[in-house]
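Before relying on records like the one below, remember that each one covers exactly one chain. Contacts with other chains, cofactors or solvent are not represented anywhere in the record.
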Amino acid sequence: MHSAGRAFLVIRVVVLRVAGVLVVLVLIVPVLVERVLIVPVLVARVVVVLLRGELVLVVGVLVARLLVAQGLRRCLE
């Protein structure tokens, strides 16, 4: 049981780190490109589906959506 719990913890840490990198990419890529990108939004949704219940990821996706909405407004102006 101890090794199974440890393996789960290691897997969770790795998944959270990967998810953190994806969230950072979702936040940075639209700002750098200054266009509305569908890919970061899809990546954010996949991350949330995979790790439902992680508050940090949910907040990250909300921020990413705000940035994408701002980019859309810039493109339409």
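The first helix runs from residue 2 to 33.
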